[in-house]
Specification:
It is built from four helices and 24 strands. The protein is mainly beta and about 350 residues long. Strands 5, 6, 7, 8, 9, 10, 11, 12, 15, 16, 18 and 21 form a twelve-stranded mixed beta sheet that branches. A hairpin with a 2-residue loop joins strand 19 and strand 20. The protein is globular and about 50 Å long. The termini are far apart.
């Protein structure tokens, strides 16, 4: 119930999230009827009978009970306890990995400022550094992934379901895309059938970092290496006529990805946008996904084995629209470097 509707408020908090307590202390707070009292030294004990509004408390937990009129407001609580709090741990900095073309061929590395620290093998197999460092300006950004399979998720944003005139299925809708449909940052999307309606769709991509089979939602993120920006280019004419999604979304160049893969990043609430010729066409937040990253990874692992390097596209928000020859697309997620691609017509067969 809202606090103002309760005659007595109780809370059990883990020390990591305790608002009222000193995070570093072994014993935490008791809030009595008239004023909060902090005890950081005494062992656990039973409260005196006259203090009927309070609870017993135990190691590692916080017990609180007070009537609404006596609860200090949030600002007062924070000001009163800031001096007793242990400093919060700074989040680990985001790491950026990618594939690059040098004069000697394809290599994988971690981007640090303006340089690429070269890896001995693809990062999703475990980052091991060769010791070589190459200026980013001397390399061409190539595909950051080489998946054994690409899994796509559909109908994962409510507004997109509405614009496509579909109904929610109650479970994630998944299908496969051909790995040969991948396109690097800066590459040209080639429209296979100029007379067909071909749409852009921007999506968050998941890169798997460990073999996963039948994993739970709670464990799923342990199998994720990182995330990237992706687009799911879709031939709507074929999609409607064939009633399945693989061919219409698997033409060469129909899966732009990149420019990098980002690790040690929280993707639960990031802005996702797509601009067509500078005009915003899609704009949403990843928090609007019906199925979270963990739920998608867990669901997919129940049906098949996910392997390191596999790529999962998590669905597109509303605002999808057609592309045509000469378009410039720019997809962004959060403050990551954007994915940019041009659009051209594919050469006719045999040419």
């Amino acid at each position: 119930k809202p606090l103002e509707q309760q005659s007595c408020h109780m809370a059990l908090l883990d020390p990591e999230s305790a608002i009222f307590g000193a995070q570093a202390a072994r014993w935490f707070v008791i809030i009595f009827r008239k004023q909060p009292i902090i005890d950081t030294s005494s062992p656990p004990r039973k409260l005196k009978p006259e203090r009927k509004s309070a609870l017993s408390f135990y190691p590692g937990r916080l017990a609180a009970c007070a009537p609404p009129e006596d609860l200090p407001n949030r600002d007062q609580r924070i000001r009163g306890l800031d001096s007793r709090r242990a400093p919060a741990k700074a989040p680990a900095p985001m790491r950026n990995f990618g594939g690059f073309l040098s004069r000697d061929g394809l290599l994988y590395g971690e981007v640090r400022e303006d340089a690429v620290h070269v890896l001995t093998k693809p990062y999703w197999l475990g980052p091991e550094f060769s010791g070589a460092v190459i200026p980013l300006a001397e390399l061409q950004i190539d595909l950051p992934v080489a998946p054994g399979k690409i899994i796509a998720v559909g109908l994962n944003y409510a507004d997109h379901i509405k614009e496509m005139q579909r109904t929610p299925l109650g479970t994630p809708l998944i299908w496969f895309k051909a790995p040969t449909s991948l396109l690097r940052h800066g590459g040209a999307i080639e429209i296979a059938f100029p007379d067909h309606k071909t749409d852009f769709e921007t999506e968050l991509g998941i890169v798997i970092g460990a073999r996963a089979k039948n994993v739970s939602v709670e464990q799923a993120l342990e199998y994720v290496f990182g995330y990237t920006i992706a687009e799911d280019i879709s031939d709507r004419d074929l999609q409607k006529s064939e009633k399945q999604f693989s061919r219409c979304k698997s033409f060469d160049t129909y899966t732009p990805v990149g420019p990098f893969v980002h690790a040690q990043i929280d993707v639960r609430d990031l802005e996702i946008t797509l601009r067509q010729n500078g005009e915003v066409k899609q704009q949403a937040r990843t928090s609007q996904m019906i199925y979270s990253v963990a739920e998608i990874v867990s669901f997919a692992s129940q049906s098949l084995t996910l392997l390191p390097g596999d790529l999962i596209l998590t669905g597109t928000p509303s605002g999808v629209g057609p592309i045509q020859d000469g378009d410039e697309l720019e997809a962004r997620i959060g403050d990551w470097p954007p994915l940019r691609n041009s659009v051209v017509l594919a050469l006719p067969p045999g040419k």
